[in-house]
Design a protein that fits this description.
Structural class: alpha+beta
Number of strands: 8
Largest sheet: 4 strands, antiparallel
CATH topology of the domain at 38-140: Immunoglobulin-like
Radius of gyration: 26 Å
Strand order of the largest sheet: 1-3-6-5
Number of helices: 2
CATH superfamily of the domain at 38-140: Immunoglobulins
Oligomer: single chain
Strand content: 35-45%
CATH architecture of the domain at 38-140: Sandwich
């Protein structure tokens, strides 16, 4: 009885696995050789050290290197302190565009944020990153006083 139950369970699992693999292979559309391709000049922007309330703007330039118009469907950031702006009109093959990103530099400390670009391109999701360090107000406004020759550290 145990052998029959184990055999039936094994057959059921094998059938379920085969059905899932078959369903997944039917869901994947054929790759379009003429699809748009989004190609970025850079995918990481390093602010370096930036003063408190400094200029948090940067740009990510891209080109449609595919054969069909490129449409950016969504560009979203990993948090509310990073705001992207992107072109809403189609980018024709060979044409370029810019994604503008503004980071709020009123937050002291390390910058490590991402911006996800979703489009109809063959590389549908591209992750852009911004990084750097926002200095405190004191570090941004008052340079360190140089020490005198005879002064102790």
């Amino acid at each position: 009885m145990k052998k029959i139950l184990l055999l039936a369970t094994g057959l059921l699992l094998a059938f379920a696995t085969f059905a899932q693999v078959e369903a997944k292979s039917q869901q994947q559309p054929a790759e379009n050789p003429n699809a748009p391709v989004i190609t970025f000049e850079k995918t990481v922007h390093d602010y370096g050290t930036i003063p408190y309330n400094g200029d948090g703007n940067c740009e990510f330039n891209f080109t449609n290197t595919g054969k069909e118009p490129l449409i950016l469907t969504n560009v979203r950031s990993s948090c509310g302190c990073t705001v992207p702006k992107w072109p809403r009109e189609p980018i024709l093959p060979g044409e370029s565009g810019v994604i503008h990103v503004k980071y709020s530099t009123n937050r002291i400390g390390t910058i490590n944020k991402s911006v996800t670009v979703q489009s109809n391109a063959s590389n549908q999701n591209v992750v852009l990153r911004i990084k750097g360090q926002v200095l405190s107000q004191q570090q941004s406004t008052m340079p360190e006083k140089p020490k005198s020759v005879g002064e102790k550290k």
